[in-house]
Design a protein that fits this description.
By secondary structure, this protein is mainly α. It has 2 domains: 125 residues, no CATH class; 75 residues. The longest helix has 36 residues. The relative contact order is 0.12.
Length: 218
Amino acid sequence: MLVPLLIAAVAGYLLGALPFGYLVARSKGINIFEHGSKNPGATNVRRVLGEKFGKSGKQFGNLVFFLDALKGAAAGGWMLIVAALARDSIGWDEITLVWMQVIGVAASLVGHCFSCFTGFRGGKGVATTVGGVLVLMPLAIAIAAAVWAVTFYTTRYVSLASILAAVALPICAFFLRGSPLLITLSTAIALFVVLRHRANIGRLMNGTENRFVKKPAP
């Protein structure tokens, strides 16, 4: 069982480490590490490119969110495809597959936040978490997404919405009677996301956190 878990960990990390935010911003001539919050996540890409290129720039931020979510989903789902295509030859049982999924998703989150391709700098892991957990716990991520939407459209704080959505994950996993493994994973993810937002928490408490506010049409 050790070899499949190591494969899942390495593949998950490398998938998560793909720096889509940096690459998308760079394609527009911008080093995202030098602008805005200097974070390569979708929120900063959307804000920075939106200010420079308007509506089309904001769409690049949406693209980054999709790609970051996709790599999380890939990290938690590729082994299911391989097992379906070559079950007789590789012999991965159901327990091994679940562990591979969990390890893959966790590793993709680490890879996203500490990418080997960008000097171990990265985003805060929200989109990658969404993609990975969508594969493992689709109902829990749907509820967490609803928490995010309600919080964001009420407060216009992306950071607060992301923190509360992350905290909602283990709560949902518990009440939906998820396995102890998934509850543990979702709890670890929630703690990790909250820690990655500790600077935002400080700004929220000080009243200096940036809001996403629609600018009036000229």
